[in-house]
Specification:
globular; 152 residues; single chain; six-stranded antiparallel beta sheet; 36% strand; Thiol Ester Dehydrase, Chain A; alpha+beta
Length: 152
């Protein structure tokens, strides 16, 4: 799957299945097979203080990780699967003062190989994803999330 195909898949999937991401004006802008970037504008995701709403920040982080895992499963596993966030730990480091983006990073290849083996053996597994949310000043939020994957 090329970057353009992956981004088109994510954009279409989000528009059809996650109305919140449409309201947030989320855009899939970069994917290299290891990292996914989703952008969101501050204009529709701000709070009463003029900074990014914490709910928008956590939603973008969670959705970015989820999309990355969806792409990874689609590219590396033959059977249809579902993905859902199972656990997340988020740290709001400082206010987000401008348009922002989430970067989700796949774990190391050894961890991914083990996850594929467990998925093939048991029909389910989990993958832990590190996500950063950044504005023009740098990292404002970090999230570590575990995503459940199961065959359907």
């Amino acid at each position: 799957m090329t970057e353009a195909q992956a981004l088109a898949f994510i954009e279409q999937y989000l528009q059809q299945h996650l109305p919140l991401t449409v309201a947030m004006q989320v855009q899939a802008v970069a994917y290299d097979g290891q990292t996914l970037r989703l952008n969101a504008p501050l204009a529709v995701n701000h709070n009463d203080k003029g900074t990014a709403f914490a709910g928008s920040l956590s939603s973008l982080a969670t959705v970015c990780g989820w999309c990355l895992v969806m792409l990874w499963v689609k590219q590396h596993y033959q059977q249809p699967c579902q993905v859902a966030v199972a656990q997340a730990q988020i740290d709001y480091k400082k206010p987000t003062n401008s348009d922002f983006y989430a970067l989700a990073h796949l774990p190391d290849t050894h961890s991914l190989h083990q996850a594929l083996q467990m998925l093939a053996r048991k029909g389910r597994t989990r993958v832990t994803i590190n996500i950063e949310v950044c504005d023009e000043q740098g990292v404002t939020v970090t999230q570590i999330a575990s995503y459940a994957i199961w065959q359907v």
